[in-house]
Amino acid sequence: MSEVERALLAVDMVVLLISAADGVQAQTRVLWQILDKLKIPRLILVNKVDRPGVELDNVIQEIKTELNAAVFPVQKIENEATDGVKIQPVELSENDAAIEVLAEFDDELLEQFLEGENLNQNKIQSVYSQQLLDAKVFPMLFSVAKMGLGISLVLDEIVREFSDINESTDSAFSAIVFKISHHPQFGKLAHIRVFSGSLQKKELVFNQRSKSEEKVNQIKAIFSDKYQDVSMANNGEILALTGLSDVKVGDVLGKKEVKRNLDFNTTPILTVEVKPKTEQDYIRLSEALIQLDTEDPLLQFVWFKDEKEFHLKINGWIQIEILQQILKQRFDIETDFQMPTVIYKETPKTVTIGYEEYTMPKPCWAVVKFEIKPAERGSGVSYKSQVGVNDILLKYQKEVERTIPKALEQGIKGWGVTDVEITLIGGEDHNVHSRAGDFVIATPMAIMNGLKVSDTDILEPMMKFILTGSEDILGQVASDMHKMRGVFEPPVFHGDKIRMEGRVPFATAMEYPVQLASRSGGKANIQMQFDGYQKVEDELAVIREFKGISPLDRAKYILKARKALQ
């Protein structure tokens, strides 16, 4: 899914395909949420309307309910669920379902609609086109793709409503990097979508993340697997740039704001160790994983050099198989992936103070004092400073701020620390002995000192689930959920079918989709989606060993940081 998400950064609009036979799936909901965040206009295309047993009214209602969106058909169907199905467009002025939705977005149209007045066709079309581009309304079309039925009508709608979507009078260059790849001849390629302005090769381009400029060596147009040199990147184009060494997926190029980013709330919930099958491939594997990490930032590759371990973050077994194939085919490296582990997190139990005086052995001087507070669940990490530059110079305070994320990678129970507010409330530097690196060393020690005093709660990943099946499995499912520490709403009955929604810990439900399908003979299905972290009781908490030398082992940690310990 992560590759799909990154690709969505580059598109103008989306045709979301839903099977009339299968309805809204788990991945449909995930994609819809991402499209909502990116505010990408979309058409909904319901395919397989000829399939026997399809009840189109139920399908339309399910889409409206599951996606919670302003959806309406713009076509009518005759002879549904048969080989003789026919698809006909409906004029907006004659489409009561569309007018009812559109009226909510325009006061004049709403008044005319409520008063029963004759509606202006041009007014309806204007409101429709604007709300479609603003991703507020979502017309629904139908098709039988295997027969080519309805496809030309979809293309007509795309041309009519989206042909001018790239028009921009802004001359300031802006683009987003949606993909990183590596080419044997050209090296690192940054794939971009240009949103405004233009860029010439050999020109400097500003990167908003790194706040620095780099020179673009070449600009490549891509046709399938072939690359063609072009002299300029223009608005609306998708191209690849060479020469940018410090560039990552999601970077915005140019100084103009781009209203798209990678904040999809896609959180890997498994970590896995990767080993080369032969020791001789150890360094080659590290280089390959570093390269893959630049291409897919969700992998979050970590190299624990003391333990000689490589760790990646993933979302399931299929991803392991894909990574093994990539490492073999692209890099000719045979690998073994160990058993994945659920990613827990930790958060401070109480407000605490983290303090450290790093003043020996000379030359060094860094004194820092933090207030560390538990924060609202799901809020992540926030940092601020209340210390004046007369106590700690601004350049040293910037080093503290840069070091905070690294200091929180492992807490006192071995997991990343989250949902925490950290405030620098005191400290001092020395006009002779202080160096920037002193504050890099002192900050993790102070943070860990504070967490040790406070202690931490373990948080576990939770999954939101929707379970459907025959009513005769209800008792077994309810029992299963209780055993897995799940909670659920009262089930909803549709004839002899049930639908159940709730939340369950990922650690206990990881294998449940397969177990449920097997137990029910394929007549029941559960769809799960990550739904944040939740505190787990202390007796169920999973603690892992700290990787590397802990800042709590003060003497060794300082020696290691100062490269006096190998």
Explain what you see.
- The protein contains 15 helices and 32 strands.
- The protein is an alpha+beta fold and 566 residues long.
- The chain folds into 5 domains: 2-162, 3-Layer(aba) Sandwich (Rossmann fold); 174-253, Translation factors (Elongation Factor Tu (Ef-tu), domain 3); 275-333, no CATH class; 346-454 and 548-561, Ribosomal Protein S5, domain 2 (2-Layer Sandwich); 460-535, Alpha-Beta Plaits (2-Layer Sandwich).
- Strands 22, 26, 28, 29, 30, 31 and 32 form a 7-stranded mixed beta sheet that branches. The chain has a 6-stranded antiparallel beta sheet with strand order 13-12-15-8-7-16. Strands 17, 18, 19, 20 and 21 form a 5-stranded antiparallel beta sheet that branches.
- Helix 10 crosses helix 11 (436-454).
- It is globular and about 85 Å long.
- CATH superfamily name of the largest domain? P-loop containing nucleotide triphosphate hydrolases
In the CATH hierarchy, what is the class of the largest domain? Alpha Beta
The computed structural class is: alpha+beta
CATH topology descriptor of the largest domain: Rossmann fold
The major sheet is characterized as: 7 strands, mixed
The level of helicity is 25-40%
CATH architectural category of the largest domain = 3-Layer(aba) Sandwich
